[in-house]
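anyone else get weird line breaks when pasting these?? whatever heres mine. first is seq + tokens for prot A
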Amino acid sequence: MAKPRKKEECKEGEGWLTTYGDMVTLLLTFFVFLFSFSTIDISKFEKMIFSFQGSLGMLQGGLTFNAKRLIGMGFTGQDAGAVMKHTKYLQEVMKQIKAFLSKVGVKKGVFVRKTEVGIVITFSETILFDPGSATLKKSAFRILKGIARILVRIPNDIRVEGHTDDIPIHTKRYPTNWDLSAARALAVTRYLVDNHFIDPRRISVAGYGAYKPIVPNDTPEHRALNRRVDIVILKTISLGGK
């Protein structure tokens, strides 16, 4: 005959141990969570958030995800393969630009480099303009025409930047270096848009005067390097692009 089971009874006062154990576990989890946030790389965290939002088909403000639009340093919501593909694409564009410059025999005065924002094509003042002028030289048209043929085939946003050295200019037409740098950037932009039909929604103009030098303005040679126009092929793709 089976013995009857004894009723299991909790000793008086032992019930609080379970609640206490749960509370300690939650507190430990909370402090580990805080510690992880104290050491997180903020820029990487923001990129992770953007990527997570993009993968769900959302952007800030509840906008529908647009695969054509690039945000920050790469495609929003795209995997590493897509980012790598875009990087190779920019490298190919850069290769085409350098090949064109080599073909037309431009060895000095035009420099091409890759930066965090995209590809920068730097034209020294003497390539495009006479001193103190914002009227394009006729000899500049051949170079700009070849660059435009590459730009018109890609969908990226473009920013044309004008820069000067730190020697003040006081002419009736250009009272400051800001005026001169902006006028030069606008002259290049107008040529690209009016003569080679680059979508104006893709292109912007900036005049920085002497406030973004690439080298110190301490010698005539350095000042010559700072007098320049940059055509920046940005990593972003305009909604007006192809």
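and prot B, same format (seq, then tokens)
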Amino acid sequence: MTKLLRTDAHNTDFQNLVSLLDNHLRIKDGDEHWFFAQFNKLDDIKYVVVSYEDEIAVGCGAIKHYEGKTVEIKRMFVPEEHRGKGVGHHILDELEAWSKELDYSECILETGKKQLEAVSLYKKCGYIPITNYGQYYGVESSICMKKILK
């Protein structure tokens, strides 16, 4: 049975999953990892969702204020052994619902071109590619996306 927990960046399960995510990205991003790592600190993250299956943390994601009515999706991760079960989709749905409750009207995110599973998930969930924003402007290996919340 899957359970979603709304929490914050101090949650130990979230921190453990983020550590696994960072290790995964260190391999996927290669030499570019240092660039992306600087934008993935947990300091400013107040809204976190952790997914549990039989009391085991199987995925996470977070939202962070970007500007105006826009929130940024951050730190989405599902370990390989738990992929293909809809965990990421459920986390993203919960983050979007929470964003609306907080009066945001749009979600944006950045992922890497090498993150094929992530790009596929976001497209399935209604995200569309946009011009790279902020620190990702001009970064060839980044794909930025957005979704208007209804």
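btw re prot B: Residues 12-29 form the longest helix (18 residues). The radius of gyration is 14 Å.
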